[in-house]
Amino acid sequence: VTTAVEKGVTTHVYRVYIKAKPQAIWDAITKSEWAERYGYACRQEYDLRRGGAFRAFANAPMLAHGAPEVIIIGEVIEADPPRKLVQTWHPIWDPESAAEAATRLSWEIEESPEGYCKLTVTHDLAGAPLTAAMVAGEVPNAGGGWSYVLSDLKTLLESGKSLAG
Amino acid sequence: MNRIIVSLSSARRSRPLRPNVLALLCRRTAQREIDVAARAHSRRDGRTLTELESELEMTRFGVMKHLRVLENAGLIVTRRAGREKRHFLNPVPIRLIHDRWIDKYTERRVSALTALKHELEEAK
Questions:
Q1: DSSP structure class, residue B50
Q2: Chain A environment of B114 (Cβ under 8 Å)
Q3: What is the pLDDT of residue B34?
Q4: Which of A9, A119, A152 best tests the B interface by mutation, with the highest count of B CBs <10 A?
């Protein structure tokens, strides 16, 4: 099996349809009390202004495995609530990832007249092959990447519960 | 099998507009679509229709037809970059099927086996 990394994919696009309001999706992306309830379940901070800081923090199991307190850093490039968020996204949970280039991540939320939303996550991963493999879910024992996170986000917003229960 | 059918029909009820990935995956001609999708994914920054056409032994019309099916199923997402339309593979619908079908019991069993494998490999 050849991986995305071997093939040199540098931009990933992930899309999921969610039966929720744009504001609910926006909150789930940007507010810590939501971010802790799905995906990798990490506390995070967003200063939603241009140039504002983004940080994600290791959760208890990650800390027990030796992760640093802050695992991802970034900067807000554009925040247009509840429609569009563009930011840098730089994992620093290990020296190898920290040594890679910062990546660029964009979140776009589009509401349909039928009352569901289309969430598109575009991740530009140029110069960050290890991070690319991580977010593609291709690193063993490192979870399912964006596919898993977005599937769980959908489950949480539509059912009130995450996949992990 | 019944469970699968039930879960499929409930999936359809709760998400009427969700593209039907399963129907696509079950189609006999899906292999051609998978070839197109794999090719779209095979290079950085997505592929244009012209690139896909030149890389696959398929007519432009054939590639367009398969891309339309894939796009309707949500497996291909297109983005415009300047004057070009690029096609990207979207893996999320496959994950949704996985998450719907692999129940917690199975997941635990799978992760227990993964953990065991890991421990045995570490012990070596």
A1: H
A2: 141
A3: 72
A4: A9
